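In the design runs reported in the main text, the only information available to the sequence generator was the tokenized backbone. The following block is the verbatim input for one such run; it is reproduced so that readers can re-run the procedure and compare outputs position by position.
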């Protein structure tokens, strides 16, 4: 490390260094697939990303004070100056604690049901079970918003209001778009625009101008939609079959698949829209921009394939589609980091220029 290079800069440099001399080495198949996905989405190929590095904080010891500080962001007093923002790959860990805590509560409901079969346990089990995984994934996106300019209050508000509005908009669109030949796959053409419409709650708030903000807001709406939908399916099937145990089975399956579906589909579409919008007021011309349309089109296609009759063993279809979605998500996180780096460099140059002028005056 050079004398004038700080640890964050060094870590950023290391993360973007290739492994050895790769000039003449063929790219692994995973890299080639990743490149095809990012090319289709119109985003940059992933560079310097390491899964182990990103999740290196998950199993480290953290205090409750650290958790509280983690959520004390997004207000006028707590948004850091851009120069203080770490623009290397984020290392989220609170999402795992959220998952572990919520899962313990859900397991409590399951054990209580198995021992007492009290029907008044079912509503709590449905609510907690439907939110365990979606909420944990949402906290992951909260952590990757490294600008720290969105409060938890805003996220929860969008989760609930955006969640119900997206359901209402989707139900309205189902009455307009009725293509029976597509079967369940028509949901991709209906629900993705429906969820995106709910983002008009925040799309014109000037301070939320970053790609990472779009990822977080899209994830919040997707979380509300996914959790409310899971709760609805669990209750409907439980009532229709008259077998409360089916409710727990539905929640388990939908919980396992939640990180690969609604949350990431809406997150990628919103991030693409925010990337196009930047710090400008929203106009409908922005949804005609190819940078948005390509990502949004992928979200719609993934949703349609998810609902298609195609099946693979061991949930292979859902895992495969989820990996495509997460490749796009990670590329958009990378894009958002680059956006912050550009702003940070400009602020540092402006600060240096101001200091130089002050020194000359002195």
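Verbatim output:
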């Amino acid at each position: 490390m050079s004398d004038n290079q700080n640890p964050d800069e060094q870590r950023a440099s290391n993360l973007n260094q290739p492994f050895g001399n790769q000039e003449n080495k063929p790219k692994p198949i995973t890299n080639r697939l990743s490149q095809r996905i990012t090319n289709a989405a119109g985003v940059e190929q992933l560079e310097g990303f390491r899964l182990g590095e990103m999740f290196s904080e998950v199993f480290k010891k953290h205090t409750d004070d650290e958790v509280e500080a983690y959520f004390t962001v997004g207000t006028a007093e707590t948004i850091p100056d851009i120069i203080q923002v770490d623009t290397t790959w984020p290392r989220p860990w609170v999402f795992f604690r959220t998952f572990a805590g919520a899962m313990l509560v859900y397991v409590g409901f399951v054990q209580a049901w198995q021992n007492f079969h009290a029907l008044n346990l079912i509503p709590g089990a449905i609510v907690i079970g439907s939110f365990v995984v979606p909420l944990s994934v949402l906290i992951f996106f909260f952590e990757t918003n490294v600008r720290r300019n969105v409060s938890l209050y805003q996220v929860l508000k969008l989760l609930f209001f955006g969640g119900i509005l997206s359901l209402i908009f989707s139900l309205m669109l189902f009455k307009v778009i009725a293509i029976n030949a597509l079967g369940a796959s028509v949901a991709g053409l209906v629900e993705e625009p429906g969820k995106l419409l709910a983002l008009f709650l925040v799309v014109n708030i000037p301070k939320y101008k970053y790609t990472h903000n779009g990822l977080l807001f899209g994830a919040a709406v997707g979380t509300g939609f996914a959790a409310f939908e899971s709760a609805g399916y669990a209750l409907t099937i439980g009532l229709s079959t008259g077998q409360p145990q089916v409710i727990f089975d539905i929640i388990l399956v939908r919980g396992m698949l939640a990180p690969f579906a609604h949350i990431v589909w809406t997150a990628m579409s919103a991030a693409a829209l925010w990337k196009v919008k930047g710090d400008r007021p929203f106009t409908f011309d922005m949804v005609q921009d190819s940078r948005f349309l390509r990502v949004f089109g992928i979200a719609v296609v993934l949703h349609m394939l998810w609902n298609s009759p195609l099946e693979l063993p061991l949930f292979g279809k859902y895992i495969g589609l989820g990996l495509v979605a997460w490749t796009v998500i990670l590329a958009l996180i990378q894009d958002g980091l680059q956006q912050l780096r550009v702003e940070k460099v400009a602020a540092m140059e402006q600060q240096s220029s101001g200091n130089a002028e002050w020194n000359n005056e002195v």
